[in-house]
Write a structure and sequence with these properties.
There is one protein chain. With 599 residues, the chain is an alpha+beta fold. It has three domains: 272 residues, YVTN repeat-like/Quinoprotein amine dehydrogenase (Methylamine Dehydrogenase, Chain H, 7 Propeller), CATH 2.130.10; 90 residues, Severin (3-Layer(aba) Sandwich); 129 residues, 3-Layer(aba) Sandwich (Severin). The protein has nine helices and 32 strands. The chain has a five-stranded mixed β-sheet with strand order 29-28-30-31-32, with helices on both faces. It is found in: Cytoplasm, Cell cortex; Cytoplasm, Cytoskeleton; Cytoplasm, Perinuclear region; Nucleus. Actin-binding protein involved in motile and morphological processes. Inhibits actin polymerization, likely by sequestering G-actin.
């Protein structure tokens, strides 16, 4: 890496030449803060999965991960160039600021109260050598704060419309300067930052706009927009170390760069992020910057390889290097065989025991979506593994062998299978024969008033028996005594002085003279037949009934079934009158105790 001070100068062209050099996926959730060491050779990140990750930038690799599961971690910083400690705020429980030793992962000191600037409209000051608050000042609203490069002046952005400047040596006297600056966009200020030369103040917002002010007069020098932030995210903007440029990430994963000299946009860099860039910092000593995105939990292609030999010979050499001990993944491995849709594939889900629980949950919830998008017809086999032995070639052969062998079943499982067969029969739907369909059409047109149907068990169809015109008193004679049938009958009658017609469906099943198979088939086909009649023929069945014979199928019975009484008159219960009139003189009855005494 090049030392920015000694070797090169940042220009428009240099910024446009920046490319992604390294990508790290150490976190399962949003990286909420990035900070560089003063010598630019190290970096530290905090994230919402409660992780602190340390990086060696000269080697270009992470060197360690610490956890703050109980308290959470945010706004992490190296203090005074010390690489062995960090300070960060807790975003769980009590919002205490914590001073942590990186060498032994132990807390050196706590700074309780609230974060450095708080929703209680106060700003607190601490000295790392003491846990006691060294100073407190009140503001006119919820503040966001930042020190100038000299550490003598601090700025407080108040209520997203004003900047107050305080002298640390006389902060109790209030701000010595007050600048009001209102945005035309409706947005909240999320961060305030001084440039390294101390001449400019940068205001980040959760809208699609950022602003640069003069640190001396408060005048608006530049207002930058034209980047995506439709979701009103807190996107971090920063100055370059020479104070000549301002950078910010965007919702679409790109980095936008403007000149602070003329206000022109000089570059839009592809950060190759799958989600919005939430954190962005330029290295104070080297020609590099870091961007971190808010994970959108998208499935992305991480690696692929063309086949070299037959699938079985390539298997272990291709797959095993992809199985990392702490990161789940999906692997789609192509076989040499084909089906009508193309090549067949093996779907492998890798979820090692050491991986974070949240990652396991995300991958488990995404598996069905991936299979659907890829096309389930292409997937021949599916394997799930937590250790390498599950997914290696021998593991796959064991999986295939176990799948091809019939599993032994107990007597209880055999009974369960029979129950499932019976449940399946409830969903049978035999098709109607053409004669039966024509008869239903004629019934709809009221050209006939009676239809009798039966099941053809061999052909698995519903057949028409006859459509003999039938009067109500003739209906009992139409019910067979030795075989089940379906009947549709238009019941003509007078109700409340008006002539009415009601379509009645009768399912007749004569006792136990029929076989069990017939009883099950007729019972299971009944509902599907009625659904088809009402849906396809628009016949509204007024009453559905089941009988075992036609003996009781009288006109009076049909009338009562079609027009049941709304309620039955009941004799009102007369509550006995209490003794002694309306009130008082009532006797309380107590249970008798032993030997007739009151208990």
């Amino acid at each position: 890496m090049k030392n920015i001070v000694a070797d090169m100068k940042l220009t428009d062209g240099v910024l446009r030449s920046f490319r992604v050099a390294r990508t790290y996926r150490k976190n399962s959730s949003k990286v909420n803060c990035v900070d560089f060491s003063q010598n630019g050779e190290n970096a530290v990140t905090s994230s919402e999965d409660d992780c602190i990750v340390l990086y060696d930038l000269l080697e270009g690799k992470p060197t360690g991960t610490l956890f703050s599961k109980k308290y959470g971690v945010d706004l992490i910083r190296y203090p005074h160039g010390d690489l062995e400690t960090v300070v960060y705020s807790s975003n769980k429980l009590d919002d205490t600021i914590r001073y942590l030793s990186l060498t032994d992962n132990k807390y050196i000191r706590y700074f309780p109260g609230h974060t450095a600037s708080s929703f209680d409209m106060t700003v607190r000051f601490w000295d790392l050598r003491s846990q006691n608050c060294q100073g407190l000042t009140s503001t006119q609203g919820k503040p966001i704060c930042s020190f100038d490069p000299e550490g003598l002046i601090f700025a407080a952005g108040v209520e997203s419309n004003a900047v107050d400047l305080y002298d640390l040596r006389a902060y109790d006297k209030g701000p010595f300067a007050h600048f009001e600056t209102k945005f035309t966009h409706v947005c909240d200020w999320t961060r305030i930052t001084f440039s390294n030369d101390g001449k400019q103040i940068l205001i980040s917002t959760n809208g699609g706009v950022i602003r640069v002010l003069s640190a001396f007069s408060g005048a608006v020098l530049h207002t930058f927009s034209g980047y995506n932030n439709s979701k009103r995210l807190s996107l971090e903007a920063c100055f370059t170390p020479d104070s000549q440029f301002v950078m910010i990430g965007s919702e679409d994963g790109r980095v936008h760069v403007w000149s602070t000299e003329n206000g022109m946009k000089v570059a839009v860099l592809d950060g190759k992020h799958p989600g919005p860039i939430s954190s962005l910092q330029f290295n104070p000593r080297y020609m590099t910057f870091v961007s971190a995105c808010t994970s959108t939990e998208e499935l992305v292609l991480d690696w692929y390889r063309e086949p070299e030999q037959s699938w079985d010979k390539d298997y272990d050499a291709f797959l095993l290097p992809l199985l990392t001990p702490q990161e789940p993944c999906y692997i789609l491995y192509r076989l040499d065989s084909k089906n009508p849709q193309g090549y067949e594939w093996i779907f492998l889900a890798w979820s090692p025991d050491q991986s974070p629980v949240r990652q396991k949950m995300v991958y488990a919830a995404t598996r069905a979506t991936l299979k659907k998008e890829f096309g389930g017809g292409h997937i021949k086999d599916e394997i799930f593994g937590t250790v390498e032995d599950d997914l290696c070639f021998q593991g796959y052969l064991r999986h295939m062998s176990s799948c091809s062998s019939p599993a032994p079943i107990s007597l209880a499982e055999q009974e369960l299978q029979q129950v499932k067969v019976t449940e399946t029969l409830q969903g049978l739907a035999f098709p109607l024969q053409e004669q039966a369909k024509r008869a239903l059409q004629q019934l709809k047109q009221k050209r006939i008033n009676y239809i009798q149907l039966k099941l053809d068990v061999e052909r698995e169809t519903i057949e028409l028996v006859h459509t003999t015109p039938t009067q109500t008193q003739e209906l009992p004679c139409r019910i067979p005594k030795d075989s089940p049938r379906y009947h549709f009958f238009i019941f003509k009658h007078s109700y409340q002085g008006q002539l009415q017609e009601a379509l009645v469906f009768i399912y007749s099943m004569p006792g136990y003279t029929c076989s069990i198979k017939e009883r099950m088939l007729y019972s299971s086909c009944k509902n599907r037949l009625l659904d088809e009649v009402e849906r396809d023929y628009q016949l509204e069945v007024t009453k559905k009934m089941e009988i075992d014979s036609g003996d009781g199928l009288t006109e009076e019975f049909l009338y009562e079934e079609v027009h049941p009484m709304d309620h039955t008159l009941k004799q009102a219960f007369s509550k006995p009158r209490g003794s002694g009139g309306k009130r008082g003189n009532k006797h309380s009855i107590k249970g008798g105790g032993e030997n007739g005494e009151e208990s």
